[in-house]
Design a protein that fits this description.
With 485 residues, the protein is of the alpha/beta class. The chain contains 15 helices and 22 strands. An eight-stranded mixed β-sheet has the order 2-1-9-8-7-10-11-21, sandwiched between helices. A seven-stranded mixed β-sheet has the order 14-15-16-13-12-18-19, sandwiched between helices. It has a three-stranded antiparallel β-sheet with strand order 5-6-22, with no helix packed on it. The chain is globular, with a radius of gyration of 23 Å. The protein starts with a helix and ends with a strand. The chain binds nicotinamide-adenine-dinucleotide. The site of nicotinamide-adenine-dinucleotide has 31 residues, from helix 8 and helix 9.
Length: 485
Amino acid sequence: MSTQQATAEAGAFIHGAAHHNGGEPLPITNPADGRPFTEVASATPGDVDAAVASAREAFEGWSGLAVSKRGEILAKTARGVRAHIDELVPLLTREQGKTLRDSRIELRRALETLEHYAGLSKALRGAFAPQIDPGTDGMVLRRPLGVVGAIVPWNFPTTLLCNKLGPALVAGNTVVAKPADTTPLTTLRFVELLADGGLPPGAVNVVTGTGPDAGEALVTHPDVRKVAFTGSTRTGERIMALAAGGTKRLTLELGGSDPLIVCEDADLAKAASAASMGRFYNCGQACLAVKRVYVVESVADEVIELITAKAKRLRVGRGDAEGSQIGPLHTARQRELVAGQVERALAGGGQLVCGGGPPDDPELADGFFYSPTVMLEPAHDSPMATEEVFGPALPIWRVRDLDEAIERSNASQYGLGSSVWTADLEKAREAAERLECGYTWINSPTKVYDELPFGGVKSSGFGKEHGEEAFDHYTDQKSVVLRGG
Ligand code: NAD
């Protein structure tokens, strides 16, 4: 058996090695055909203890290194993973369902984020306040928090992990990561490769298992000082309650229902492309996907036609098949959820333009496929407007003007991102100012940049990943008053 298989089957990676345990087996299913193809052992409470103890032990050595040395090690280990990207791509596709192309993009983005933070290691600074009293200076030190629990969902298992690993490790913390119970394989192998590349044992450990078991054991572990969570709002709220015990630090990157607004003066073809790409990428399973479109009446027919044409052209197929542009949804349950939301919205008055169910292709019958769906004018209190739709279904509403679009956009519990398409700078400025969310793209596809902080408001959570700002969430700032003796 290769070490790779051994790590995958062991189900945990602790102190630089596969950790064999007796936990319940978790079947891992290929979303393209609905068939389980392997299983991993889920972590027991003892495994979570061992992983946290390993991270705690490693903390002293890791946090004691020069910051630039930590950056250097991270950059080197990221290069080591990059050399194995061809091995990771099909593994990610097999367990997650996304196309091979999207797996490669995801893995490259994950490594870019690690490299970005490795580079920022030389820019990590505290503050200095000279002469705050006669003969007295003030300093603000940045200190790492200790052991970070990193809990990640299944839609982007590696980028969402690296968004946490980059700033956490460079700031001097050590990590216990818990991937989703349905996508542990790429994470286990990825972290094993980081260790092979020179990351010290215990700096990053992995435990697998379900949220209520391994996840809660990690969140409530007394030696975990911070929980960095990405996932649904419901789970985020549960984790927030659990993290109150022990007064733990918390970052919550939660659900979204991002609007895209098209004004009458926009470049309509580009806006339609951004809407289609933003909604259907990763089969609609992205927190920052475009989930609602509001288009000003005078250009609505043209925009609807452009988006619909794009949706109809998308090739749905197995992630590992040549030419596929959209893979299956991740689980049967996810497909049921999306299908239910579409049905309720149609029953409440929405008009179906295309899609609305699984594709006809008999070759896809066993997988969790769902056709790209466009719907017009569902009720403003329908699931398409009020819930997060985590799949390839896009509602479009006509609005009077930008003002109505902004009001409708803000009438959501979520506040992750938004986009606005207009040639009018004044409208763009007004929208950026008024839209209640953490990120606004103007005339731009919904791409996340390492340089800029990312994170939501309202039910989309709090705290920032990306940007230098992420360091604030992985460090304590300690004030020191210094007076000559
Ligand atoms: P989820 O909340 O069910 O699970 C996410 C992770 O939390 C998994 O690892 C799961 O095992 C774990 N978990 C579940 N219950 C737990 C508990 N009680 N204690 C500790 N851990 C627990 O989310 P999901 O449905 O798997 O993922 C999709 C959601 O993630 C969507 O809502 C999406 O918008 C959100 N998301 C947000 C962002 C962002 O950056 N804001 C990015 C990607 C996905």
